[in-house]
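Deliverable D4.2, example record:
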Amino acid sequence: MSVVRTVITTVLLCIAVAGVHAQSLNKKLSDRYYKTKYDTNYVVRPAERWLLKPSLNQTGTSIHAKGTVKDVWSKYDLRTKYQTTLSMEVDYCDIAVAFSINPAKMKGNYDDYEFNFEYHGNMISFDLDYQSATSLTGDINFGNIDHLDEDALTMKTFNLAAYYVFNHRHFSFPAAFYQNYIQKRSAGSWLLGLNFQSGSVRTTYELKERNPQAPDVHITAAHLGIGGGYGYNWVLGNHSQWLLHLSILPTVVVYNHNRLEVNGERQSASRMRFNMVFNERAAVVYHFSPRIFAGATLMMSNSIFDDKNVVINQNKWLARAFLGFRL
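Output generated by the structure prediction step:
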């Protein structure tokens, strides 16, 4: 019996110690959550620490290229299948866990792979995405070929955009895109940004087997841009029910390396020119009550490179519609 009492006592002590540590951790998370460097006349934390947010997400990518290689001109207007996912986010004191499903992928109708990550903070925000796709379809102007179906080309793209917010005490990116803050009064901020975008498109073996006359195409692009822009949060309604966000960050390309290769013949363009990468964001959030809200966001990245021999334009967008419940 003494052994049993010892075991029971040990278990109870462990439970008590775990409870004390859990309470201490919870207090630290709560203190960090409510501690803010914002001006509370403009931005505040919600009173509730839990956030549930189901959402519907859709992404798309397109690449447009044209150029002359060994006096042979060709043009490509290509796009991927749209990726549509359903997700659920659970957030406690800014610690979030999200789960998403792609119905088309579950049915075997979508084979592309995509990874997206976003971070929106007081002073620094960034988002990145990587995509590997074989669902490229579109128009092509090369010889007697005018259209490409799926599995003809494979594409890989990577995009990174980072922002620094100067007026971070009054202007909140998280209020528009995370909803873990509430913008009480309208405010804007100048932005400093860095952007890197790269991608490649090349012909698959499946296309060459189906059509031996098809061109062997390899397009590569890489851009590094630095620039500045502006963002603004409009707060409307008697009780700040509406939040409208719009920001744009153009960057000047300080390094680029683009190449169009057709049937083993290569035309490159890597010297310094005045080219641009644009990042645009928009959001609308409506609060039905302090605890229930709904909204939509849109993020886009567009690169424009124009050389006398090679022209490449890459576009990426992510749209999201959501409901939110604060507990």
